[in-house]
Amino acid sequence: MMGRTLFIDPGRCIGCQACVSACRECDSHRGKSMIHLDYPDEGRSVASLPTVCMHCEDPVAPCAEVCPADAILVTADGVVQQADTTRCIGCANCVNACPFGVPKIDLRAKLQMKCNLCYDRTSYGLAPMCATVCPTGALFYGTLDELRAERPGVQVADSFTFGATTVTTGVAMVVPADKVEWPVPGGLPVVEINGKDVR
Question: Residue 180 and residue 47: Cα distance in Å, rounded?
């Protein structure tokens, strides 16, 4: 895990969308938000979850590995950049390769859009825009020691399983200490395949 990184604490998210608004203000992609606020049980619960790029370390950035145009670069400190606008061909390979469902394709611009950890800020020691405005600390930028100093006993995960594959990430997620499995199972349970209920 990177020294200073983003920690996502779903239990603190109140769905206020401050992170989404702040992300739109980032100079590198002004007007477009690269963070997604998901509602995992929409219609039955008010639970919300900020979804940002997890900056996969092992395997290294599956989105970049499948890009036929080499449009997605990974910095020396492990930050997976958004697609280079001069190289991206909008093929959506990255969308299909990401186990976390992060990259999105702007169909009009034929361009991949995703969080780059506000690299224009974090490369200079500043927190990403989303973490600077989160009123509850659901998005925390710092070191694991800083997080634990503020929240004693907190457990975090940076390894997630998807079937037989384990993905280690540069961004970590706060997990309930009494319910955690290592590595944390990723994805949502499959309940329907081709319109057929498989529960």
Answer: 19
Q: Which helix (H) or strand (E) holds 130?
A: helix 129-133
CA 32, 13, 159, 102: dihedral to nearest 10 degrees? -20
Q: Kindly tell me the sign of the dihedral angle through the C-alpha atoms of 10, 73, 64, 144.
A: negative
pLDDT-derived band at 106, boundaries 50, 70, 90 = confident
The residue among 96, 129, 128 whose CA lies nearest residue 112 is: 96
How many residues are recorded in the chain? 199
The residue to which tokens 């958004």 are assigned: 82
Question: 42-100 pLDDT, tens per residue?
Answer: 888 888 989 999 999 998 999 999 999 999 999 998 999 999 989 999 999 999 999 99
Question: Strand locations in the chain, DSSP E?
Answer: 5-8, 36-38, 49-51, 56-58, 104-106, 111-113, 139-142, 155-162, 165-175, 184-185, 192-193, 196-197
Question: Three-state SS for 51?
Answer: strand
Q: Name residue, tokens 């927190």.
A: 127
Q: What is the DSSP letter of 60?
A: B
Q: Any residues with CB less than 8 A from the CB of 151 and at least 6 apart, and which?
A: 174
115 CB neighbour count, 10 Å cutoff:
29
